[in-house]
Design brief:
single chain; mainly beta; 10 Kd Chaperonin, Protein Cpn10, Chain O; 7-stranded antiparallel beta sheet; 1 helix; 7 strands; about 5% helix
Length: about 90
């Protein structure tokens, strides 16, 4: 398993497919599609703890942000705290 360094946050992006198999972003309750993911792990520099994030939290993040990373055929996205825009509570 990978462990993010510094202030990086590792997300497992939630991806939906349309009926025709086209990948689309997750839709919020108002029909607006925004990128969303689950927090898998985060670095230990203390910056993430200030946000009150926990492993397993669902978050929305800025489209196009982050660095994709693959480990054992599982795709993750590494983002910075300033890339996050909301936590689903």
């Amino acid at each position: 398993m990978l462990s993010p360094l510094g202030s990086f946050i590792m997300l497992k992006q939630e991806i939906e497919e349309s009926k025709s198999g086209i990948v689309v972003q997750t839709e919020d309750g108002e029909g607006i599609r925004k990128p969303k993911g689950e927090v898998i792990a985060f670095g230990n520099d203390g910056e993430v703890e200030k946000l009150g994030l926990k492993v397993g939290d669902k978050v929305y993040f800025i489209e196009g942000s982050g660095e994709p990373l693959k480990d054992e055929d599982v795709e993750y996205l590494l983002v910075r705290p300033y890339d996050l825009i909301a936590v689903v509570r």
